[in-house]
Amino acid sequence: MRESPALKVLLASPRGFCAGVERAVEIVEKTLEKHGKPVYVRHQIVHNAYVVEKLQKKGVVFVDELEDIPEKHQKTRPVIFSAHGVAKGITQKAKDKKMLAINATCPLVEKVHREVERFQKDGYHILLIGHKYHPEVAGTMGQLVQIAGQKPPITLVETKKDAEIFTPPDERPLAYVTQTTLSLDDTNEITEVLKKRFPSINAPKKGDICYATANRQNAVKTIAPQCDMMLVIGAKNSSNSMRLLEIAQNLSKKAELITDGDNLPKIDKKIKTIGITASASAPEILVQQTIKTLQKTHQVTLQDIPITKEAVVFKMPKELNQKR
Q1: Residue 33 burial (10 A CB sphere; 0-12, 13-18, 19+)
Q2: Which CATH fold would you assign to the domain 19-106?
Q3: E strand segments, 54-165
Q4: Is-contact 75 98, C-beta < 8 A?
Q5: Which residues, other chains included, contact 177 with Cβ-Cβ below 8 Å and sequence gap of 6+?
Q6: Is residue 241 within 8 Å of residue 268, measured between CB atoms?
């Protein structure tokens, strides 16, 4: 019987769920415990099919808009806003409909929301560095107060080129904020252009890219150069997954985005070392499943490569701390 080939697996650490995602999933679980099913969630609670499907089996119904909730349930069943955050108009609509709305927005996204509010109040034109169709960007832009007959004082900047050609629409001072799940390197390129072109531009008091995004990107930067292949466990609609993949593709010989261990790419004889990471919305169970799949065909040696420890915990919403 032929012996299985040896394979060294480097595990990026930290990886997987961040505190904001853990909190969002726990909010859904606790809401189910407190109120029973069904529980409605506007948009995916986090961008991961495994997490979404697991919650659906427990009685969670995901909807695109509040109007998609059956009328008989709009005042009787809870609705949860996803970790990505929502526009003020959505939260106001829920209030007007007298819905039991629970906000699972990541506190670090809410920090950006408060910055945008403050910049508008202080008379700034805001540059939002982010991706056009991401729900977090929609939620952040939706924090601005709408004034009749005026465009909101905000411009989306997606690329370095956008920063190079941006022309201020009026005489207002400028400020910028960023989506929390961007590439550190790409964002730094954009902010450098903005600071060079507009030296007085106001920056956030503390960087907007979240600690978990930065840590997971730095962990990949540490192990990817040592690998013949990097596996990023995540989803195509997850911004932090795609940023991890981009970094891995730049630094390793080969990199692939996979949803789980059942979707492994071909591993030829030349591949001796594989690196594995998981996006902030991918649970650790998918990492372990991937390892078990590799162990079916290879003699796997595991090595955890920690770059930092995370000890951040976010509080539950007050609605879930109250007795029924």
Answers
A1: exposed
A2: Rossmann fold (3.40.50)
A3: 60-63, 78-81, 100-103, 125-129, 154-157
A4: yes
A5: 112, 115, 116, 119, 126, 127, 128, 129, 140, 204, 208
A6: no
The pLDDT of 196-223, averaged and rounded, is: 94
Residue 238 and residue 242: Cα distance in Å, rounded? 6
Quickly state the pLDDT bin for 194 (edges 50, 70, 90).
very high
Q: Is the peptide bond before 38 cis (omega within 30 degrees of 0)?
A: yes
The mean pLDDT of 175-181, rounded to a whole number, is 96
Three-state SS at 169: coil
Average pLDDT, the chain: 94
User: What is the rounded CA–CA span in Å between residue 286 and residue 15?
Assistant: 11
What fold does the segment set 108-197 form as a domain? Cobalt-precorrin-4 Transmethylase; domain 1 (3.40.1010)
Domain ranges of the chain: 6-17+211-306, 19-106, 108-197
Q: Report the C-alpha gap between 199 and 22 in whole angstroms.
A: 39
- Residue 324 pLDDT grade (very low, low, confident, very high; cuts 50, 70, 90): very low
12 strand-pairing partners: 305
Burial string for 100-115 (b: 16+ CB within 10 Å, else e) reads bbbbbbbebbbbbbeb
CA atoms of 246 and 322, how far apart (whole Å): 43
Q: 6-17+211-306 sits in which CATH class?
A: alpha beta
Of residues 110, 136, 158, 171, which has the active-site annotation?
136
| pLDDT tens-digit map of 236-292 | 999 999 999 999 999 999 999 999 999 999 999 999 999 999 999 999 999 999 999
- Active-site annotation holds for 136: yes
Backbone φ and ψ for 277, nearest 5 degrees, come out as -135, 170
Instruction: Note the pLDDT of residue 318.
Output: 86
Chain mean position to CA 51: 14
Question: Does 6-17+211-306 match 19-106 in CATH topology?
Answer: no
